[in-house]
């Protein structure tokens, strides 16, 4: 019987260190002090899949040569992540992702720009929102519909474009596209006005004081842009 991913994850420190390489589990606890690169490198992947880090450095027969057969624990059932039905909110998804994603992937997705102050404040603001508890409420029929940017939508879910989607799933952005009702593309995507004709038009037209082949610039802005009618050449 194949080992479960949860079983491997429990052995995640120097006292009991198991790693997964090419779908098989290995007990490297006793090998830690003998590793030429030091134990810290292996401990980074304790209880996790270390295949991607192992392959570029080690020959294929390394484990057979240097690790006793009794430490070869057998195949691992890699499809033992928690079911989606077991994740009830974003915090559940985050906890699972932290455990099953590769270190580089988790570092990318869990980080933010610069000093990350904005990210931390946004996270703290979310925790300050309290919902009034409701008990014995009929939830047989629930309406998630709301209004976003003046347009009616069935549920307030939004997926923004991001980079390196394949860090989280082999299909990357394709998977997100397939699950979205509408895919906004860089070319030919509908404008907010198309989605909601009643939205106030904030576009402004700026005309150069000395007409050139490009005599006008149309910009879509959310705040007014103040541009002096006369300005020195080469300066804004």
UniProtKB/TrEMBL annotation:
<feature type="domain" description="Cytochrome b5 heme-binding">
    <location>
        <begin position="1"/>
        <end position="77"/>
    </location>
</feature>
<dbReference type="GO" id="GO:0006089">
    <property type="term" value="P:lactate metabolic process"/>
</dbReference>
<dbReference type="Pfam" id="PF00173">
    <property type="entry name" value="Cyt-b5"/>
</dbReference>
<keyword id="KW-0349">Heme</keyword>
<dbReference type="Pfam" id="PF01070">
    <property type="entry name" value="FMN_dh"/>
</dbReference>
<comment type="similarity">
    <text>Belongs to the cytochrome b5 family.</text>
</comment>
<dbReference type="GO" id="GO:0046872">
    <property type="term" value="F:metal ion binding"/>
</dbReference>
<keyword id="KW-0479">Metal-binding</keyword>
<dbReference type="InterPro" id="IPR036400">
    <property type="entry name" value="Cyt_B5-like_heme/steroid_sf"/>
</dbReference>
<dbReference type="GO" id="GO:0004460">
    <property type="term" value="F:L-lactate dehydrogenase (cytochrome) activity"/>
</dbReference>
<dbReference type="InterPro" id="IPR001199">
    <property type="entry name" value="Cyt_B5-like_heme/steroid-bd"/>
</dbReference>
<dbReference type="InterPro" id="IPR037396">
    <property type="entry name" value="FMN_HAD"/>
</dbReference>
<feature type="domain" description="FMN hydroxy acid dehydrogenase">
    <location>
        <begin position="82"/>
        <end position="236"/>
    </location>
</feature>
<dbReference type="InterPro" id="IPR018506">
    <property type="entry name" value="Cyt_B5_heme-BS"/>
</dbReference>
<keyword id="KW-0560">Oxidoreductase</keyword>
<keyword id="KW-0408">Iron</keyword>
<dbReference type="GO" id="GO:0020037">
    <property type="term" value="F:heme binding"/>
</dbReference>
<protein>
    <submittedName>
        <fullName>FMN-dependent dehydrogenase</fullName>
    </submittedName>
</protein>
<dbReference type="InterPro" id="IPR000262">
    <property type="entry name" value="FMN-dep_DH"/>
</dbReference>
<dbReference type="InterPro" id="IPR013785">
    <property type="entry name" value="Aldolase_TIM"/>
</dbReference>
């Amino acid at each position: 019987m194949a080992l479960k991913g949860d079983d491997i994850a429990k052995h995640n420190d120097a006292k009991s260190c198991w790693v997964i390489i090419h779908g098989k589990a290995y007990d490297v606890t006793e090998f830690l002090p003998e590793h030429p690169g030091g134990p810290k490198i292996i401990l980074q992947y304790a209880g996790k899949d270390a295949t991607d880090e192992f392959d570029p450095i080690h020959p294929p027969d390394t484990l057979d040569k240097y690790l006793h057969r009794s430490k070869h624990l057998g195949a691992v059932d890699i499809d033992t992540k928690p079911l989606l039905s077991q994740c009830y909110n974003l915090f559940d998804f985050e906890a699972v992702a932290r455990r099953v994603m590769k270190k580089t992937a988790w570092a990318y997705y869990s980080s933010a720009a610069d000093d990350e102050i904005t990210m931390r404040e946004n996270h703290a603001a979310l925790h300050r929102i309290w919902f009034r508890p409701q008990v014995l409420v009929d939830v047989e029929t629930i309406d998630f519909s709301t209004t976003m940017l003046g347009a009616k939508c069935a549920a307030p879910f939004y997926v923004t474009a991001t980079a390196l989607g394949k860090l989280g799933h082999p299909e990357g952005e394709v998977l997100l596209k397939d699950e979205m009702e509408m895919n906004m593309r860089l070319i030919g995507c509908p404008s907010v006005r198309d989605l909601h004709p009643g939205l106030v038009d904030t576009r402004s037209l700026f005309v150069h004081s000395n007409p050139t082949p490009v005599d006008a610039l149309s910009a879509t802005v959310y705040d007014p842009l103040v541009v002096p009618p006369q300005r020195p050449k080469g300066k804004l």
